[in-house]
Amino acid sequence: MHRYSPRDILVLAGIALLFLWQLAPGLLGDPRRLLVFAGAIILAITVHEFSHALAAHLLGDHTPASMGRLTLNPLAHLDPMGTVLLFIAQFGWGKPVQFNPYNLRINPAVGSAAVSFAGPLSNILLAMLLTLVARYTITPGPLEREILSAAIRINIGLAAFNLLPIPPLDGFGVLEGVLPRQFGRVLEPLRAYGPFILLALVFLPSLGGPNVIGALMGPILGAITTLVRGV
Predict the structure, then answer these.
(1) DSSP label of 169
(2) pLDDT of residue 203
(3) Would you say residue 1 lies in a domain?
(4) Which of helix, strand or coil describes residue 55?
(5) Which helix (H) or strand (E) holds 124?
(6) How many helices (H) and strands (E) does the chain have?
(7) Which segments of 1-79 does DSSP mark as H helices, in order?
(8) 216 membership: H or E segment, kind and range
(9) Which of 177, 64, 187, 49 is nearest to 121 (CA)?
(10) CB 156 within 8 A of CB 47
(11) Which domain holds residue 128?
């Protein structure tokens, strides 16, 4: 099972270009900040994709392991286009983890939902761990605080964005898996149009329209942030 198709990657590239247009001038003028941001993104994406692979492996499908994805080596998870845009647009994505839901030891729909949820969950747990490090270890210096703060914010943001119930994001896979089968079949055709819907919603505020993505992400982002700060 491919989590992203080539068309999905093109849509995500369009989203990355929007981030470039809106955010790049300030970051490109500060090389240190750019490196901190890139390092935090690489960490978040690596953990995210590894967790998809680990979840599939633990549930009985060894496809990710056979493809070398059951590792925390960033080189196994970074997508070439996503990595390039990481440095020029401060927005990137990982190489899709392929798995076969029919190899899973549990119901394929529920198993697929679990594999989908593993990525965002790993980013939430990593944000919690980094918060504990910042709060209870030796007092970090300014650079260390900046790195920890960037990593926490990026992991929270990546988790919240991926939990949106819009294909090709993980939230849609979770939604399909937990809904009754008849509802899942109704939602399945959205996969063909979801990337375009996602792209349109991301660009809508720049064209003077409502910020639908912000409205959808707001409660998720708030809930995750509250959870992380409460550890």
Answers:
(1) S
(2) 76
(3) no
(4) helix
(5) helix 108-136
(6) 10, 0
(7) 6-28, 31-58, 63-66
(8) helix 212-229
(9) 49
(10) no
(11) 6-229
Which active-site residues does the annotation give? 49
Q: Is the pLDDT of residue 80 over 80?
A: no
Token pair belonging to 8: 């999905």
Do residues 16 and 116 touch, judged by C-beta distance below 8 A? no
Give how many domains the chain has, as a whole number.
1
Q: Which residues contact 6 (CB under 8 A, 6 or more apart)?
A: none
Please give the share of the chain, as a percent, with pLDDT higher than 90: 40
Which tokens go with 176? 């399909």
pLDDT (0 to 100) of residue 196: 81
In a domain, residue 220? The reply is yes
Average pLDDT along the chain: 83
pLDDT band at 87 (very low <50, low <70, confident <90, very high): low
Residues near 60 by beta carbon (within 8 Å), at least 6 away in sequence: 103, 104, 105
Which residue carries 């969950």 as its tokens? 121
Residue with tokens 């900040």: 33
Q: What is the pLDDT of residue 126?
A: 97
